[in-house]
Structure formats: structure tokens, C-alpha cells
Amino acid sequence: MFSLSINVPTGRAYVRSATGTNDGTSWPNAITSLQSALQPGCPLPEVWVARGVYKPTATTNRAISFTIANGVSVYGGFAGNETSLVGRNLSLNPTVLSGDIDNDDTNTDGNSIAESISDVKGNNSSNVVTVLPSAVARLDGFIITGGVVITTGADDRGAGLYSRGQIMVANCRFHGNRGLKGAAIGVFGGTLMCVNTSFSGNQADNGGALLTSTGSSTLINCTVMNNHVLNGGGIGADAGANATLLNTIVWNNTALNANSVYGSLNITYSNVQSITTVIGNIQQDPMVENAALGYLRLKLGSPMVNMGGPATTTNQAGFSFLIWLALLDSVADVSISAPMSFRGRVVLFLQRKPATGTMPVSGQLGLCRRQAT
């Protein structure tokens, strides 16, 4: 069972560029290094990270990653003065976790994000973020980019995020990660709940954006586009593993030897390309603008508007969430409130801002924004 009711010290660590005491007790006194805030000797239940680019190490040691300890939730997307999670603005405050430790990736637009694998150069971090076995953790509000796995072995997956524990990923973007198995996320013997997250420009030999091995993954309101792989274009599940897709788009992922997905997958209220045997799979071009750059926005007339599932409660793989799917307005991304404990389970409320027009409220597929009508 996934629960954040864990016996850890109370408190919060703040991370940003600051000139105070740097003890992490407030924004003015923030720790300047995310790696320092995540060290095992300082396991606070929350870490708030202000906008900026953060790398696992100042050296060129590819084995060093951001490791999230048991019971820790790490939140990005802050300007550096907020007092609550609902005060975040992710689009105005991009918080980038980058594997470009040798500082030579292509960055012509200055955003420090590898929009595609062609932007990745040199010797990058093998895994940008890791979650160890038995850990229960959350990663929320980050852009994870530039992870590269180049050697085979037990850790040859998840260049962006490699998890062997229980991890909730919310409000994130994975771009330009390259792995042998599961370029963006690799789940090995653990459990993943991924909500309101997009994957594009990632490349792998197996399970392009996400590969689950001997574990389970659930994707809700996610968009998986423009990833490349030899086997299992967008999402893969090895023997003994499974993945569930709800209100999720998997489109335009190239695979040389398989369909857009492979393995044991449960698909509901989703749009998965090349899957014709699943009742309720829409299988239509979602009409997404700027998909090649990873900035996902539904065009006017997209068949995905108002095609998502109704209010949904799911208890997949020990997670419990109440998902309330309302209509998106013309400029706002899906927002997630802080999780609450209910009867020993984590309950997460997702709510989109109400539309100003008269369109009926239902659901919308994928992590995309709808243009005004």
C-alpha cells in the first residue's frame, strides 16, 4: 500500500540561490544545492525547489544521481517566495533536473533542456533521478532531461528516472533522455504512479519513454509523443510486469520492431496509436501543436477535447486516488493539490480550472492545453 504516513522528521527544506544562512529553513536561507538537500543525513519529508537548472554533480562522475529517500516528496516550480504548493506556477518557473554534467549539450534556445536526443552530447549522468528499493517518494513539478545510459547491466534503464521503490511522478516533463531500457523512466520491481506528465524526444532500445520490469506502472492524464525505440515505441511492460493507461495519449512514437506499446497493458479512455483490439481506444490524431519541441497544446478541433473519462477513482497497485476530471480553460495546465491521507491511503485530487465558455464538463485526454474557442 502506498502511504506517506511515514515516521520521518517534520519540516521542509528550501532550495534556491540564496545568500542567507543556507540551512534550508526558509527561502531567504535556502540551501543552494539540491543534492545537499537530498542527502540521507537530512531526510525532511518535503523539499521545495525554486526555478533553475540543477545537476546531480559538479564533477563528471556519471554514476551520481539525485536519490530521493524514503518518505520524501520533492516539489519544483517555485519562484522562491511561495508559502503553499498551490502558489506554484510551473510554466513561469521551470525547474530543470539535467544530466548535462559536462556542460556540452546543445542549448541554442537557452532553456537547458534537451528537446530531443540529438541535443545530448558527451558524457551525461547515467540516471538523473533514482529511487531505491523500499523507498516511497514523490517527484512533482520538474523537467527531467539529458540522462544517458550507455552500458548494459542491472542499472541499464531509466536514464531520466530509475525507480526500484514506490514513486509518484506528477506535473513533470521528460525530454531528451537515452537509455537501453526505458529512456525516460525505468521501473524495476517497484510501483509507479505517473500523473499529468509528458514524454517526448526520448530514445531507447526497449520501451522508449517508459519500461516496467517486474513491477507495475499507472499513467493518468499523460502524453507520450515523439519518442523512438527499437521495441515498444512509447511504453513497454516486460513479462511479469504491467502498465495501466487512463486518459492518456500515446502517439507518433517510432518503433522498428513493434507497435507503439508492448507487453501487458490495460488501456481505458485513452488514445493509443496502432492499437485496434481495445474497446474504447480512440486511435485518432490528437492534433497537438509544437509536439516536436515537447510543448504540448491541443489545436482547435482536436478530437481529444471532451473525450476523457468521467470522474474516476482508482486503486491500482496499492495507490488510491480520486481523480476529478473537469474542463481546462484556455491557458491553465492541470493542477494537482497536495495529497491527503484517507483511511491509510493517499488521496490525490486533480482539478482543472473551470472554463469561461459553455462547453459541457467531462474529461480531456492527455497532458495538453486546449486553445480558446
From TrEMBL:
InterPro entries found in the cross-reference section: Pectin_lyas_fold (IPR012334), Pectin_lyase_fold/virulence (IPR011050)
SUPFAM superfamilies: Pectin lyase-like
Name of the protein: Right-handed parallel beta-helix repeat-containing protein
